[in-house]
Amino acid sequence: MRLEAKPAPGLAATLAYPLGAILATLLIASLLVLIAGASPFNVFWLVLKGAAGSQFALVETLTRATPLIFTGLAVAVAFRAKLWNIGAEAQLYIGAVMTVVLGTGAVAAPSLALIPLIMMCAMLAGALLLLGPAILKTRFGVDEVVTTLLLNFIVILFVSMLLEGPLKDPMGLGWPQSKRVVAEAQLPRLIQGKRLHFGFVIAIVSAVATWVILKKTVFGYEMRAVGHNAEAARFAGIPVNRVLMKTALLSGGLAALAGFSEVAGLKGNLTLDLSPGYGYTGIVVAMLAMLNPLGVIVAAIFVAGIFVGADAMSRSAGVPSYIAQVMVATALLTMVTAIMLSRFRIRWR
Amino acid sequence: MEAFEILWQTSFWVAAIRIASPLIFATMGELICERAGVLNLGIEGIMTAGAFAGWITVYAGGDLWTGVLVAALTGAAFGLLHGVLTVPLGLSQHVTGIGITLLATSLTYFTYRVALPEVTSPPKIEPFQPWAIPGLSEIPLVGPALFNQTPLTYLAYVVVAVVAWMLYRTPAGIAVRAVGENPAAVEAQGISVTMIRIGAVMAGSALMAIGGAFLTMSAFNSFFFEMINGRGWICIALVVFGSWRPGKALVGAILFAAFDAYQVRLQQVTGGVIPYQIFLMMPYVLSILALIAVARRATYPKALMVPYQKGER
Amino acid sequence: MTPSSGGEAETVLRLSGITKRFGPLTANDAISLELKRGEVVALLGENGAGKTTLMNILFGHYVADEGSVEAFGRPLPAGEPRAALSAGIGMVHQHFTLADQMSVIENIALGTQRLFSPRFDKAKARQRIETLSSDFGLAVHPDALISDLSVGERQRVEILKALYRDARILILDEPTAVLTPLETDALFATLKKLVASGLSIIFISHKLHEVMAVSDRIVVLRSGRIAGERRTSDTTRPELAALMVGGDIAAPAVTEHAPGGTMLELEDIHTAGRAGGAPLDGVSLSLRAGEITGLAGVSGNGQAALAALIAGTLRPERGAMRIGGETINRWSAREALRRHIGRIPEDRHAVGMIGDMNVTENVISERYRTRRFSRNGFLDWRSAETFARGIIDDYDVKCPSPDARVRLLSGGNMQKLILGRALDGDPQIILANQPTRGLDVGAVAYVHSKLLEARKRGAAILLISEDLDEVLALSDRLVVISKGRLSPPSKRGELTVQQIGELMAGHGLEDPSHAA
Question: Which residues cross the membrane (chain B) (predicted)?
């Protein structure tokens, strides 16, 4: 068999491929649900109801989508330049650490000054964390996949060390958790009494800004050129290494915002279970969105919906909630296959 | 200096070899894949799936070797999926590999919950027991470390020898190396690049899964979530560190394991002055440092991560 | 015309009505061909005439849309290199198919022993290789790594690969492109021995003199069709040349005119090697306004390094570089562009264009930072698209719109985009590295006319080509490169092809102080 490039499909066809991928994912998930001894239709209905069936469910889904938008954007930006940042998890935690360091009373300022300051510092910390692997890649040729993956483990241990040491909450009854951030450092809730917070708005704004960067700016153009063909980019005089560094800064910064928003908007303090793998799930979100920043919003809400819905479903239908993770992983694989099929035609002979 | 005395403890060397065993399996597995030109980032998930598959087989009444076989087949199945997606379809090996890891891990957890819905702590199995090799195991220091281990550890060393022999001394191995260097050379000699690559990825993935199974069936006696804990990623670093050669990768794995065993004991010796997390970080930091050290002179298989299409040169 | 009317020689290979289309392009159009035992058939044609496609179909790399292949009277299943191999067909590809980090034995015996046998029988393979080497004059060390071999030796390994499998039909695709004249003679001697032992050979080439020297029969391909078939003893070079180009495209008319001042000057430049080729070892050269300087040489002798140097992607380690009289200190691709060097790279797919970006995005890639295309970090897509449309119109690029992905364009149209990008703003210095490789005759003529146009308006042009005929046809001055050193420049027509051949082999270039 052989793959042949084909012209870009029209809008309808472009949407058909992701839908096909989702359909394939549902089919595979149905099989697992059957194995678990439940009815797929019932299970999917419960997932849907749990994700979007009530105001509570919807709010919960959007809340869960917030960190995924940030990590999805981080991955989308990096993958555009073929910088394989698999370390969004670590960058998220570093962003959270920064938020706790500055937000628990070390700096006293009104909200309007303190929150932007914390945001900037969190972004900077995440950016610098990814700069390391980017420098190792460009200077020494060390594969960034492995370094960013290993950094995830290092950073989690680092956070654990901080939580049992300098950042430990003296009132925490021995639990490894930080103090709570002061009121001025907390993001306001969007709806009184609900968990959805201003971090969601920041996420949407970030997505739009990232879209503008990719589509409209010189930097975005450089990033895409480097990602598609670094050698041709270098020949055309595009400073490939510098572009990769800048991409790393942007990507790391975006991922760090996830940590900032979770601490300042939702949890209020830092614990070791702040992220149930948002960094890794960000990869799925980015791929489902075909690396389009605006698509990341949709994909993140979709993925968050699966997680939230599956939690609810699991309580009532007895199918393990891990089905959500299986679906998300399957969606990643079916989606990359669908993207390939939308660009190439398979000729068997 | 207590820190140095550790090196003379028999238990330290026994532990080092035990820690090395799963790494050796998985490193050899990744090495085969990469020698054929396919990066397999599914390793972490495949090890998880292998650990579970072997353990649950024994828990369900199978004998230990059947468990190893089931683990290997599970690994090969995920290898087949990775191979089909990355070789004929030419999907990004990075993204697909991560996808395989996510899929294998989540499927494992899902299956665990479906199979054992009620349990709160995972049930134990009767794992492999050490086989003392008469005579040799009585040599001081080296004896217990090398010759009083479980059969799976011995198998790990056999696997290194077999992989080395296969890659350099058999027609199939020569084809694997050639396909990682220049697939067109293989195609021109009438061998299917797709078949060789998928076959290598399946074989490699089977070894990774056995590496995972070592943890549940030899090192410990039960399955825990997140028990692979980054070992797969470390094996990828070990392959680079070993310059894609089985012998060097073996040395790397043992060195690494010795260091890991050492830091655990050093932790006890230093008695909590240094936070224990620093010690736990060391293996990961060491892997990154090893990568930096060898990166400059690393000679990658030339076609690594380069998809191949027939007739394209 | 039916060759060998005596009729005793059996037909070993028969291609009937082979047609192959790639999208809108018909690479092979109903081609039929026969090969007799002990015969050398030359497949002659310009680049892009469809020779390589035809042979790839024969060997099973491609599957024909129509037609069939028969070897030794038995039909050959399509799309299976293995079937071609076992039918006794061996192919020496233009780009060698060897694994560099493996030994000669391993490369040759790959796939000849049962894949899952527990042991690779090295001794048997070695013995057979040594026998074949001595029988046919193909000296090569069986245990050497391919990466340590010269290009000529690698080609011998390729031929041995075919012989090792008892090939009765040998296909050689442009075998002399990488050889020095001396090595070419050795190859021809080997081919004679092979034919004497009963092999049949298809020799693919676009070089008339070689075809005349080596073949019994010549089949000329033009634009995917058979343009004619002649017995070698009954034809002449001019007749073949006319068949090749179809007579309707005249050789480029180069009018004499006096060159202007020096635009770019290299003085005793030393560099690292590039793309596996030789490094530059004391190169001095000046490019003058209104003049095409042609660079001839066997590939891998430093052309890649010289091209990279001028394109700005390689910095000299030693030596001086002056542009318009000004000594250059900081050198980069960006600097080269800032100094108005138009650059046509060797590999348009891998280096010249970004296949997955669209036409607009590709044509601005060298200039996107200028005020014409961007303000305050934001791109002016409207201006960029206008520019793209301009190039599409001016250079007659066939593409659906400026939004089309470049990957979907043909090689000729891609090259036109590169020309449009490189020649925008009338650069005073132009680097044209293999500007016509793989293009069809019409596109070749178009590229030539654009280069001559630039020459006419006073640009200083360096033309690097492996095609000696192209270099000779276009250049005002000729320099020959060998092992990273340049011959003194010679005027148009000053040297005979034989003398150029000797320079290509490195004779007379030992002392770098000779250089211009």
Answer: 6-26, 38-58, 64-85, 154-176, 196-220, 232-259, 274-295
